[in-house]
Amino acid sequence: MDFPFENYERMADFMRRCKGKVMVSINDHPDIRRVFEGFHFETLDIRYSNTNQRQGKAEISGELVIMNWQPAGLGLLF
């Protein structure tokens, strides 16, 4: 499914204007970090078990959790 980069820019704009809390999880990439600059970031390693079935290896990818709020008191959520 095609997801034009302009949609990420629109999403970041929405998050800046939204009065409620918004959390987005997306692949970590410098361009994504640039578009969402100013938001709170958490980084995670995600293991995709179905990406390399021939070799029986799970691929690990960087995931970026973006929030328009500071997550005070989330404990071990991340």
Give an account of the 3D structure.
This protein has helices at about 5-15, 30-35; strands spanning about 25, 40-50, 55-65. The protein is of the alpha+beta class. The chain has a domain at about 25-70. The chain has a 3-stranded antiparallel beta sheet with strand order 1-3-2, with no helix packed on it. The longest helix has 13 residues, at about 5-15. The two termini are about 30 Å apart. InterPro entries: SAM-dependent_MTases_sf. Keywords: Transferase.
Features:
2 helices; single chain
Number of strands: 3
- Provide the gyration radius in Å: 15 Å
Order of helices and strands: HEHEE
Helix content: 10-25%
Mean pLDDT: 87
Task: Give the neighbour order of strands across the main sheet.
Answer: 1-3-2
What is the 3D form?
A: globular
Total number of helices: 2
Q: Which spans have pLDDT < 50 for at least 5 consecutive residues?
A: none
- Characterize the biggest β-sheet: 3 strands, antiparallel
Q: What is the rounded distance between the termini?
A: 29 Å
Structural class: alpha+beta
How much strand content do the residues show? 35-45%
Quickly describe the structure:
It contains two helices and three strands. By secondary structure, the protein is of the alpha+beta class. InterPro entries: SAM-dependent_MTases_sf.
Write the layout of secondary structure elements.
Layout: H1 5-17, E1 23-27, H2 30-35, E2 40-52, E3 57-67
Antiparallel strand pairs: 1-3, 2-3
